[in-house]
Design goal:
Helix content of chain C: over 70%
Number of strands of chain C: 0
Radius of gyration of chain C: 24 Å
CATH superfamily of chain C: MetI-like
Oligomer: heterotrimer
Strand content of chain A: 15-25%
Order of helices and strands of chain C: HHHHHHHHHHHHHHH
Largest sheet of chain A: 8 strands, mixed
Strand order of the largest sheet of chain A: 6-7-8-3-9-10-12-11
CATH architecture of the largest domain in chain A: 3-Layer(aba) Sandwich
Distance between the termini of chain C: 8 Å
CATH topology of chain C: MetI-like fold
CATH architecture of chain C: Orthogonal Bundle
Chains: A alpha/beta, B mainly alpha, C mainly alpha
Number of helices of chain C: 15
Distance between the termini of chain A: 33 Å
Largest interface: B-C, 47 and 51 residues
Shape of chain C: globular
Structural class of chain A: alpha/beta
Number of strands of chain A: 12
CATH topology of the largest domain in chain A: Rossmann fold
Strand content of chain C: under 5%
Chain lengths: 333, 281, 336
């Protein structure tokens, strides 16, 4: 199947006063129509930067330095700001983590929603309000008519996130980027909201890039998973093969620290160490410091993508070398 | 603290406006200290033959109505303005800080009453209140400083009160309280020292403001009286000659402007630098 | 509904503030300046005369009684008689007020009308030349001694370029328009008196610019920083992610939020405007209450100075009440 979105060699840097922080160094992946792709990693691994890079919403002092973001073959990075604007919200939508602060406090829900609809669907205000109402019904908002006349502060966090979802899906985008959409919500409604996102996008055939630090979430809903570490992808594959056959030590660590997978009575294992300095990153594998299978040669050069099995890839010197040796190639680097 | 110093310095150097403000302030201080060395003439030397002479090599800023060298008078004037700034900051700062700290620390009705009193002082347009106090005290430099200091007190007390409210919930203060630390000890040992960085920022801004308001009072005849070479008073007298002897009012006014700008830029820059919300980003 | 309650609370709140203001003014005028009786009587008066004046003024009564008398007078609009003119201070103030009102109105119009757009441009062109120009302009403004700026304007536009009048409210050959509001521009408009309107307007240009400049600088600054802060908010990112056009993001999504602190500053800094009016009117011989009070200072005319102080402060307090109301309309969290 042809990819809907193809990210190639994405480098995004932040020019801070301490130096250039290399937030993303060569991220490449594809998103296929209608699929749900989970993007997993701990805080600061570059998940959100990836999402914002795709939307071209990187703020100063950040800058996309190189790479391609192909949406239906068209490089988004080559578009003018105005061309990009017409894609945002219409072809690619995004919902954010913080529903409490992501809606404008001085504008009514109706105003916020109808403006988005008017911009993309070129309809008049009344028609837009009708569509907004319909969307609010779809996200199972109680009293959609009344909500249109309310201000964001009059709604609960879950309600606001429903509004965000309704707004993001109102122009039938092909891609929905959901950046930790349930993290800031009460645990009791996290599941509901996630279900809502998934059901609605499946119904509409919208592909979802679901960003989360929670592998458990991904296990429940995603088709494929990408695991990121320190601005790079370390493993990619179908959910099933990642969960049954994780190969990168980081992925393994993440899985071990999942509460649902830990054995009763045992302490939850964590991955020791912290993220490397991304201003002066080491030359070799970025996971080296925290890796339990590292070798001396891992310090030389970044690992490349290595094909493990059907749609399953890993970025690891050691695994690659072992596999190659087993196949009788010897070391290749 | 040690780790913070180079960064603060780095940020000052990196912000041209803050640096410019600092340079202006330093020049003002140097000018005040070394006035007798820099000034080409005695500021009070009268020379009727040379009265109202335009700027020349001999008198770069020209001369006044009795032939005194305006450059020398402006240089000596820096002493008065700087003195006004410092005295006002002390006269307003010390009671302001104490009021704020005690009011914030004890809270309750006491705090309520104090803050309402501050509201009353702040209900006046600043120059208007300073003017009526200065008028009541009688026109003199000292009285104008007291009037200006009075209107600046709420600035300090409100700032320090706010700091106190947040500081008194901080673990290190709570710990001292739990160990039976006396309120006086906590206020002087923890609360005031920890509010100092914001107080310094405010002090710089108040210096500028004080110089400006005091000069305004002098201008309307309520501050330093001629022949004191106070800048505002110089402009006030120079005003009579503005259409024909433009230099008389222009140069002293320019120095008020530069001095006030120096303190404002420095204070603003310092605030941005010390504000943890902005720094480090 | 809530807005009525909110305004009600604000109104209640200003009563103690106003009372406090009168107490403070009373203390300043009645306790600091030694003996007002001997001041009024003059240096050569006999002891008996001074005693009589003291009795007439009620200065021999206990201080709180004196205050009650003072307050009762204030409530009736009685500020006492001016030492300098011998007329009721209230009458004098009434006479000079329209000019000050007109001047401050035009200054505000200029400062707000130019300050908010300048601040917005500065914020969206951050660290580029429009921002540098506007910031320099506003840095100059907040440090500028109003009286010095006035003199420079007078020197350049009146004396050297000779393109604008430098004193008074009207050309001397014209007579003031029929008194309706006392504000010449408005009265001239109402009576269709064009020559007077033009003349009054040109006489306002320099003083209004001079007085408005500081205010403009403050407004530009706060608009810029408030815009910058708001543009960094997550809801702006949401709007961008939804493909809202930049123009709407700035003028609708950001501005309405950014204006909230701007309105507050407009209210607070109105005090600067009132203070500045004293200096501006003096420089431009503009016959308003500011010029009146400076002239009263030269005579140590306390009733006039204190009357002025009370009236101007009440206006300032009222202005801030107005700002609170506008504030409520901008911020739905207060309105509801």
């Amino acid at each position: 199947m042809e990819e809907l979105l193809k990210v190639e060699g994405l480098h995004t840097y932040f020019h801070t006063y301490r130096g250039v922080l290399k937030a993303l160094t060569g991220v490449s992946f594809s998103l296929y129509p209608g699929e749900i792709l989970g993007l997993v990693g701990e805080t600061g691994c570059g998940k959100s930067v990836t999402a914002r890079s795709i939307m071209r919403l990187i703020k100063e002092p950040g800058k996309i330095e190189e790479g391609k973001i192909l949406y239906r073959g068209k490089d988004l990075l080559s578009l003018s700001e105005e061309e990009m604007r017409t894609i945002r919200g219409k072809d690619i939508s995004m919902i954010f983590q913080e529903p409490m602060t992501s809606l404008n406090p001085v504008l009514k829900i109706g105003t916020l929603m109808s403006e988005v609809i008017m911009v993309h669907k070129k309809v008049n205000k009344n028609r837009a309000l009708n569509i907004a109402k319909k969307m609010l019904k779809e996200v199972k908002m109680p009293d959609p008519e009344g909500v249109l006349n309310k201000y964001p502060f009059e709604l609960s966090g879950g309600m606001r996130q429903r509004v965000m979802i309704a707004m993001a899906l109102s122009s039938d985008p092909e891609i929905l980027i959901a950046d930790e959409p349930t993290t800031a919500l009460d645990v009791t409604i996290q599941g509901q909201i996630l279900r809502l996102i998934i059901d609605l996008s499946q119904k509409r055939g919208t592909a979802v890039l679901l960003i989360t630090h929670d592998l458990g979430v991904v296990a429940n809903v995603a088709d494929r998973v990408i695991v990121m570490y320190a601005g790079n992808i370390v493993e990619e594959g179908r959910v099933k093969s990642i969960f049954t056959n994780p190969s990168h030590p980081y992925t393994k660590g993440l899985l071990r620290s999942l509460p649902s997978l830990a054995k009763e009575g045992e302490e939850l294992p964590t991955i020791p160490g912290t993220l490397p300095n991304l201003i002066y990153p080491p030359k070799g594998c970025l996971f080296y410091d925290r890796c339990d299978i590292r070798e001396e040669y891992c310090k030389e050069g970044r690992p490349e993508r290595f094909h493990l099995g059907e749609e399953h890839y890993v970025w690891c010197h050691k695994i690659k070398n072992e596999k190659m040796e087993r196949l009788g190639y010897g070391r290749t680097d | 603290m040690k780790k913070k110093m180079p960064l603060t310095l780095y940020l000052i150097l990196k912000s041209p406006l803050t640096l410019f403000g600092a340079v202006l302030v330093i020049l003002l201080i140097l000018m005040a200290i070394f006035a007798p060395l820099i000034a080409p003439y005695n500021p009070n030397r009268i020379s009727l033959r040379e009265k109202l002479a335009p700027p020349s090599l001999k008198h770069p800023f020209g001369t006044d109505e009795v032939g005194r060298d305006l450059l020398s008078r402006v240089i000596y004037g820096s002493r008065i303005s700087l003195q006004v700034g410092i005295v006002v900051v002390l006269l307003a700062g010390i009671p302001g800080i104490l009021i704020g700290a005690f009011s914030g620390y004890y809270g309750g009705q006491f705090d309520n009453i104090i803050m309402r009193l501050m509201d009353i002082v702040m209900a006046f347009p600043p120059l208007v209140l300073a003017l009526s106090i200065a008028a009541a005290l009688g026109p003199s430099l000292v009285n104008s400083m007291m009037a200006v200091a009075f209107i600046m007190i709420p600035k300090f007390s409100r700032l320090v009160r706010g700091e106190t409210l947040s500081l008194k919930e901080k673990p290190f203060v709570l710990a001292t309280r739990a160990q039976g630390g006396k309120p006086l000890y906590i206020i002087f040992r923890h609360i005031i020292p920890n509010s100092l960085s914001s107080v310094i920022v405010l002090a710089s801004l108040v210096m500028g403001d004080a110089i400006l308001v005091a000069a305004s009072l002098s201008f309307i005849g309520l501050g330093a009286q001629p022949p004191t070479p106070e800048w505002g008073a110089l402009v006030s007298v120079g005003r009579k000659y503005i259409l024909d002897q433009w230099w008389y009012a222009t140069f002293p006014g320019l120095f008020i402007f530069l001095a006030v700008m120096g303190f404002n830029l420095f204070g603003d820059g310092l605030r941005d630098i010390l504000d943890p919300k902005i720094r480090g980003r | 509904m809530r807005i009525a309650k909110y305004i009600g609370i604000r109104l209640l709140y200003i009563i103690p503030v106003m009372l406090g203001v009168t107490i403070l003014v009373f203390l300043i005028s009645h306790t600091i300046p030694g003996d007002p009786a001997s001041l009024i009587a003059g240096p050569k008066a006999s002891k008996a005369t001074i005693e009589r004046i003291r009795h007439d003024l009620g200065l021999d009564k206990p201080i709180y009684v004196q205050y009650m008398i003072y307050l009762r007078g204030l409530l009736k609009g009685d500020f006492g008689k001016s030492i300098r003119t011998g007329i009721d201070v209230a009458t004098d103030l009434k006479k000079y007020f329209p000019a000050t009102l007109e001047l401050t109105f035009f200054s505000m119009l200029f400062a707000i009308g130019a300050g908010i757009p300048l601040g917005i441009i500065s914020a969206i062109k951050r660290n580029r030349w429009p921002d540098h120009i506007s910031r320099t302009f506003s840095i100059f403004g907040v440090s500028m001694p109003v009286f010095w700026l006035g003199l420079l304007l007078l020197l350049v536009f009146y004396s050297k370029l000779k393109i604008l009048p430098g004193s008074g409210r009207l050309d001397t050959i014209l007579s003031p328009p029929t008194h309706i509001t006392g504000m010449y521009t408005i009265d001239a408009l109402l009576t269709g008196n064009w020559p007077v309107f033009i003349s009054a307007l040109t006489h306002l240009i320099l003083p209004a610019f001079c007085l408005g400049y500081v205010y403009l600088a403050i407004i530009t600054r706060i608009t810029r920083s408030s815009m910058l802060e708001v543009l960094n908010k997550e809801y702006i990112e949401t709007a961008r992610a939804n493909g809202i056009p930049e123009k709407s993001i700035i003028l609708k999504h950001a501005l309405k939020n950014a204006l909230i602190p701007v309105v507050t500053i407009i209210g607070i800094s109105f005090g600067e405007l009132m203070g500045g009016a004293i200096l501006t009117e003096t420089i431009f011989s503009f016959p308003g209450v500011g010029k009146y009070v400076v002239e009263s200072i030269n005579y140590l005319d306390f009733p006039a100075i204190m009357g002025f102080t009370v009236v101007v402060t009440f206006i300032y307090v009222f202005m801030n009440l107005l700002v609170d109301v506008i504030y409520a309309f901008l911020d739905p969290q207060i309105r509801y």
